[in-house]
Amino acid sequence: MSDTPQKTPSVNSRSLLLPYALGLIIAMTIVHVVIAVTGGRVTVLAGALTAVVALGIVVWLRRNRKQLRRVRFGVVIAHTLAYVTVTTSFTLHLVIRVIALGSGGDASGAIGATLLGGSWFGATLVMSALWGLGLLIHLIGTVLGRGWED
């Protein structure tokens, strides 16, 4: 046996988190292309595809948990990347839809129905509010832990 301490391989946050972020962007782009070509509504198909993305996030987090824990704020950064990518993609898609509706003359009723009465309400406002609350709690806990999560 050797008396020299074992070195643990270093973790590069860029090589760990950048492919994750790019994968999320690609996955959510696919979800929104499907939404656009199937009538522009958030349907069961869109929900199922988003659930597949969520499952992919969980699998990635489990596979990379040890490496993430060796990066200061690593787990919460991964959580934040997921939150920002998913919620921003839905909100951006909705903004584009509302602008397109608004350019068609007297469309205030259609805009109101899309924003508040349609399938977009849950996919934008409700999802971002509830997930945002969970992210806020995670961020506060991580700050209290000085960036390290065990």
Summarize the SSE layout with pairings.
Layout: H1 13-37, H2 44-63, H3 65-69, H4 74-102, H5 108-117, H6 120-144
Helix pairs in contact: 1-2, 1-4, 4-5, 4-6
Overview of the molecule:
The chain has 150 residues and is mostly helical. Helix content is 76%, strand content 0%. The protein has helices at residues 13-37, 44-63, 65-69, 74-102, 108-117, 120-144. Helix 1 runs antiparallel to helix 2 (44-63) and helix 1 runs parallel beside helix 4 (74-102). The protein is elongated and about 70 Å long. 18% of the residues are buried. The model has no long low-confidence stretch (mean pLDDT 89).
Structure, briefly:
The protein has helices at 13-37, 44-63, 65-69, 74-102, 108-117, 120-144.
The percentage of residues in β strands lies in: under 5%
Distance N terminus to C terminus? 30 Å
Estimated helix fraction: over 70%
Overall number of strands = 0
Oligomer: single chain
Cα gyration radius (Å):
20 Å
Low-confidence stretches: none
Averaged pLDDT: 89
Number of helices: 6
Secondary-structure element series = HHHHHH
What class would the helix/strand composition place it in? mainly alpha
Largest sheet: none
| Mass-distribution shape | elongated
Name its key features:
about 150 residues, mainly alpha, 6 helices, elongated
